[in-house]
Design a protein that fits this description.
The chain is an alpha+beta fold. It is about 30% helix and about 20% strand. The radius of gyration is 26 Å and the shape is elongated.
C-alpha cells in the first residue's frame, strides 16, 4: 500500500493516537497534501500546525530546535502517523510554520521555490482555502480540521477497511470530516426504515448516497428500483407510479403494475422529486404513510405496498409541498465539494482512473506504475491548484468535464492545465462572481474584517458573499486595507 508508516515518539506503527492538546471538536490550522510528485499515495494526508514547526524531507535530528511536521491519515477509527516526506528535491528544513489564530505564518528557508496561491513568495500568512506549492514537488491546501475526527455512531459496513483515499464500497470518495459525516448519516438512515429525503446540489453524489442507503438496509438484497421523477411523461404520472388495469383509460391499453407495485418489498429511488408538481406530490401522501395504500387507475380495490421511498432533490425543503416533505422522516444532506475541497484531489484521481479503465489511450498516455501501488495518473500541480479554487457549480460533474477537456488537449505525458482549460476556468470564475449588495459599504467591510481579526474567509461569510475571492475584489475596488498578506 506504500503506507510508509513510522514509529513516532515510541508509539507502535499504525497506532491510533488521541488529540494531544485540544478537544475533538475544536478545529485547528492544517495542511493537506493535494499533490505530490514523488509520493502520490500521500494525497489526503494532513499535518496540524498547532505549534512552531518545520516542514521538510526526512525525520528529526537531535540538534533540531523546532518540532517537525508529521503527516497523518485521519479516520474516525483513529489517526495513523505516517513516515517523513521523502522527496530529495525538498530540503530537510524547507518551510517554517507558526500558527496565528486560524491562519499560518509561512517562511521559505529551503532550496525548493515556494508559491503561495500560485505566486512566488518567500513568506506570508495563509488561511483556509490557500495553497502552498513547493514548485513541482508538493502542493498543500490550507484547511481547518479537528485534530481527532469524531467517531462513527456505530460499527457498520460503511466503515469497511478500504484503502485510504480510495472510493468506499459504495463509490463515495473522500477522507474529510464532512465525507465521513455523510457516511455516518447514510449508515444511520439505512438502519432505520422510514422514507428518506436526500438533499444536495447537482453532482454532489445524491444517487450514490441513495444507493448506499438501500444496500446497507434490510432491503438491500433486493434490487433498488430507480426512476428520475423529471422524466415522467406529462399526464401519465399516476399511471407510471400506481399502474393501471387492462383497457384503462382506453380500450387496448395494456395492464401496468406501476413503480409502487414493482417496489413492493424493496426501495424505490425517485431522483429530482422536487420536479413533481404539487398536485402529484399530494397523490403520493397515502402510499407514503405507514400502511402504503394505493390504487391502480381504473381499479376500486385498495392495494398495499411494503416499500421504502428514497427521494433526492437539489431544491430547498420549503419548495416541496409541506405535508409531502413531512412524510420523509429521515433527511440526509450531501455536502458540495466547496465544503470539502480537500477531497477534490482524491476525486480527480478516482475520475482519471475510471477514464483509463474505458480508454486505452488515456491509460497509455498519462498513467505510470510505481512499485507496490496502483498506476497513478501524471497530473500537473497547476491543474489541481486551479480546481481547488474553481467554483464547481455541478461538483463532480464539473470536475469530470474539466478533466476530459484536459485529457483531450494535453499533448505531453501529463494531464495539463491547457490553455483551453485555463480559459474555461477563468470564464467560469468570472460568471460566478457575486457583486456586493448595494448596502455593503467600505465601513461594513472594515468592521467585518476587524471582527474576523483580518480573516477574509470569515469576513466574507459574515457579509453574505459567495467566497473570499469576491471580498478580495471588493477590497481592491474600495481601497480597503487587509491584515497581513491581505488577510
Amino acid at each position: 500500500m506504500n503506507d510508509d508508516r513510522s514509529t513516532v515518539d515510541g508509539t507502535l506503527e499504525g497506532f491510533s493516537i488521541p488529540s494531544r492538546h485540544r478537544h475533538d471538536d475544536v478545529s485547528v490550522p492544517a495542511l493537506v497534501v493535494a499533490w505530490s510528485r514523488e509520493e502520490p499515495h500521500r494525497v489526503g494526508e494532513v499535518a496540524f500546525v498547532d505549534a512552531e514547526q518545520v516542514l521538510g524531507r526526512g525525520g528529526g535530528r537531535a540538534e533540531d530546535t523546532r518540532s517537525r511536521v508529521r503527516l497523518q491519515r485521519q479516520r474516525p477509527a483513529g489517526t495513523t502517523m505516517m513516515g517523513p516526506i521523502g522527496s530529495v528535491r525538498i530540503s530537510r528544513a524547507q518551510l517554517r510554520l507558526r500558527p496565528r489564530g486560524g491562519d499560518v505564518e509561512v517562511e521559505s528557508v529551503g532550496r525548493c521555490p515556494l508559491l503561495i496561491n500560485g505566486e512566488p513568495a518567500e513568506r506570508g500568512v495563509v488561511g483556509p482555502g490557500d495553497t502552498l506549492h513547493l514548485k513541482n514537488e508538493l502542493l498543500l491546501l490550507v484547511a481547518e480540521r479537528p485534530e481527532r475526527m469524531p467517531p462513527l455512531r456505530s460499527s457498520t459496513s460503511m466503515a469497511a477497511d478500504f484503502r485510504f483515499g480510495e472510493a468506499d464500497p459504495f463509490g463515495l470518495v473522500g477522507e474529510t470530516p464532512a465525507a465521513w459525516a455523510l457516511r455516518d448519516m447514510v449508515a444511520f438512515a439505512a438502519r432505520a426504515d422510514g422514507h428518506v429525503l436526500v438533499r444536495g446540489p447537482s453532482g454532489s453524489g445524491k444517487e450514490l448516497a441513495a444507493s448506499a442507503i438501500h444496500k446497507l438496509s434490510a432491503r438491500g438484497e433486493r434490487p433498488l428500483l430507480a426512476r428520475n421523477a423529471a422524466t415522467f411523461p406529462p399526464g401519465l404520472v399516476d399511471a407510471e407510479l400506481f399502474g393501471n388495469v387492462k383497457n384503462y383509460p382506453n380500450p387496448g391499453t395494456a395492464e401496468r403494475e406501476g413503480l409502487i407495485g414493482e417496489a413492493d418489498g424493496t426501495s424505490l429511488f425517485l431522483d429530482e422529486i422536487g420536479e413533481l408538481p404539487p398536485e402529484m406530490q399530494a397523490h403520493l401522501l397515502r402510499v407514503l404513510d405507514r400502511r402504503g395504500e394505493y390504487q391502480r387507475l381504473g381499479e376500486s380495490r385498495v392495494r398495499r405496498a411494503d416499500l421504502r421511498v428514497i427521494a433526492a432533490t437539489n431544491r430547498a425543503i420549503e419548495e416541496l409541498k409541506h405535508d409531502f416533505a413531512a412524510r420523509f422522516t429521515l433527511r440526509v444532506e450531501v455536502p458540495p465539494l466547496a465544503q470539502r475541497r480537500e477531497d477534490i484531489p482524491l476525486l480527480v484521481r478516482h475520475l482519471l482512473r475510471r477514464a483509463a479503465e474505458g480508454n486505452e489511450d488515456v491509460r497509455l498516455s498519462f498513467f505510470e506504475s510505481r512499485a507496490g501501488a496502483p498506476p497513478e495518473a501524471r497530473v500537473a500541480p497547476e491543474l489541481i491548484e486551479r480546481l481547488l479554487r474553481h467554483p464547481l457549480r455541478t461538483n463532480a460533474r464539473d470536475v469530470e468535464q474539466i478533466l476530459w477537456q484536459a485529457l483531450a488537449e494535453s499533448r505531453g505525458k501529463m494531464v495539463e492545465l491547457t490553455p483551453g482549460v485555463d480559459r474555461r476556468l477563468a470564464l467560469a470564475s468570472e460568471d460566478s462572481a457575486v457583486t456586493a449588495p448595494v448596502d455593503v459599504s467600505r465601513e461594513q467591510i472594515e468592521a467585518a474584517l476587524a471582527r474576523a481579526r483580518g480573516n477574509v474567509t470569515k469576513a466574507a461569510d459574515e457579509l453574505g458573499l459567495k467566497n473570499r475571492f469576491v471580498l478580495y475584489r471588493l477590497m481592491k475596488k474600495l481601497g480597503v486595507e487587509g491584515g497581513s498578506e491581505g488577510r
